[in-house]
Amino acid sequence: MIPFILTFLVFVGSLIKMLKQPEFRSFFVLVLVTLALGTTVYHTVEGWRWLDSLYFSVIALTTIGFGDFAPVTDLGKIFTIMYVFLGLGILLGFVNASGEYFRKQQKERSDRRRHKNGKQSNGDQVNEEENLVESIETKTLK
Q1: 15 pLDDT exceeds 60?
Q2: Residue 23: which of 108, 101, 102, 134 has the closest Cα?
């Protein structure tokens, strides 16, 4: 139980740090809005309890599909088709933004360790070139 609690605390800390970045924050808000929309629609259309509606919304977007809940109305089925296609894209964007954050954090830690140890290598030139390409890509995307 202790490893789970420690992992959860690290996750919450990382989430708080990631929310400071505009790109991540926008995907996080989109995920929350998507889940809220799904929860509300399933509660209204299918008549499920709020928790069941949220549960199904998460299960549908993560493509787990346990099969314990399924829409029975035509409107619920049509909504689920659109919800999964649109929501999955939003969720993947969120996962991608999270992965980018963790990749950058790992690279920064690695660079700090390398500079702290005073080691300079040919890899540093490659890292500088990667940083230059990354900054150009960032400016281009904006």
Answers
A1: yes
A2: 101
